[in-house]
Write a structure and sequence with these properties.
There is one protein chain. By secondary structure, the chain is an alpha/beta fold. Helices cover 25% and strands 25% of the residues. It has helices spanning 20-36, 61-65, 78-87, 142-145, 174-181, 206-224, 277-281, 286-289, 296-300, and strands at residues 3-10, 41-43, 90-98, 104-111, 117-122, 155-158, 161-167, 187-192, 227-232, 235-237, 240-242, 247-249, 255-258, 265-272. The strands form three sheets. A six-stranded mixed β-sheet has the order 5-4-3-2-1-14, covered by helices on one side. The chain has a six-stranded mixed β-sheet with strand order 6-7-8-9-12-13, with helices on one face. Helix 1 packs parallel to helix 3 (78-87) and helix 5 (174-181) runs parallel beside helix 6. The relative contact order is 0.17. It binds 4-methylsulfanyl-2-ureido-butyric acid (CDT). The site of 4-methylsulfanyl-2-ureido-butyric acid has 10 residues, from loops.
């Protein structure tokens, strides 16, 4: 057994006016709780330090940049890194990253138990749109504020296992898991901010949204025989509701732990990384069973092209 005890640290809503220091204090409270419960690793949501700002339409670059971090750790997040190091707990969380040469990404990091950053991922599948869309009930402007990630889907040797990350909408795309699966990933960590209604389909509510969320995670976990840790930012942010649904999914595709609220809430599960072996060595032994000679369209074509009549 190679057991990694994981805390999935859901955050309740963060209002637009709430500062990073307040949020970091909430994250430290969850981290303390996780350490007391024996966690080796605590995973926090996408864009964990602020409200989900891509719902707001902005045109002033200086205003936009107030939502971004130009270094990590920085003054606001140093107390979180310091506490994680003191407790000997690894952490993963998402934030809006501005690089020294001015690029903007939706990013997640993973630290080791000494608080050193050992992995960085930049979100590849950016949902939504780039211009104000009056037809939508509310805006989702990730394509306006972020560039698609430029780091691929790396997998790292860390915490005694093979660890990978993706972010929110990435979880809906099978390619995300398969590219990590081909590197032997044993645990995928991801944060999400998912509105509880579809801005383009008013009758698609929270039940359907939670169903599609879990369907994607459970399929990705099963088909690649990997743990998946999916962590929400949930609840009502300035009148915009985000669904909860923080879950830990085992390599058999089963949900083994789940939050019950839409507030700050920690769930903990002992994840045996060796439990990934059975699936990887049998039905999903890629080397024996994959037929790449028939998969060319997956990387040569983006949109749908029906066969000619
Ligand atoms: N943050 C994020 O990626 N949210 C999306 C909402 C899609 S609606 C434009 C998600 O896939 O959950």
């Amino acid at each position: 057994m190679r057991t990694l005890t994981v805390g999935a640290a859901q955050l309740g809503p963060i209002q637009k006016a709430e500062g990073r220091q307040e949020v970091v204090a909430r994250m430290i409270a969850l981290l303390d709780d996780a350490a007391a419960k024996g966690c080796d690793l605590v995973v926090f949501p996408e864009l964990a330090l602020t409200t989900f700002f891509p719902r707001w339409y902005m045109t002033d670059p200086a205003e936009i940049d107030t939502w971004f971090e130009s270094e990590m750790p920085n003054a606001a997040t140093k107390p979180l890194f310091d506490r994680a190091r003191e407790l000997g707990v690894a952490i993963s969380f998402g934030y809006a990253e501005k690089t020294p040469d001015g690029h903007h990404f939706n990013t997640s990091i993973l630290t080791d138990k000494a608080g050193a950053i050992v992995g960085k991922y930049r979100k590849i599948h950016l949902p939504g749109h780039s211009e104000f869309d009056e037809k939508r009930a509310f805006q989702h402007l990730e394509k306006r504020y972020f560039e698609p990630g430029d780091l691929g889907f790396p997998v790292w040797h860390a915490l005694g296992g093979l660890m990978g990350m993706c972010i929110c909408n990435d979880r809906r795309w099978p390619e995300t898991y398969r590219v990590m699966g081909l590197q032997g990933v044993e645990m995928v960590m991801l944060g999400f901010n998912t509105p509880s209604v579809n801005s383009q389909k008013s009758d698609e509510g929270i039940e359907d949204r939670l169903f599609h969320h879990k369907l994607s995670l459970q399929a990705g976990a099963y088909q690649n025989s990997t743990w998946v840790i999916a962590v929400a930012k949930a609840g009502d942010e300035d009148g915009h509701h985000l669904m909860g649904g923080t879950v830990i999914v085992d390599p058999d595709g089963k949900v083994v732990a789940e939050t019950k609220t839409e507030g700050d809430e920690l769930i903990v599960h002992p994840c045996d990384l060796d439990a990934t072996r059975f699936g990887k060595e049998t039905i999903f032994d890629f080397k024996r069973h994959r037929r790449i000679e028939h998969y060319g369209l997956i990387t040569s074509q983006t949109g749908v092209e029906p066969p000619s009549v």
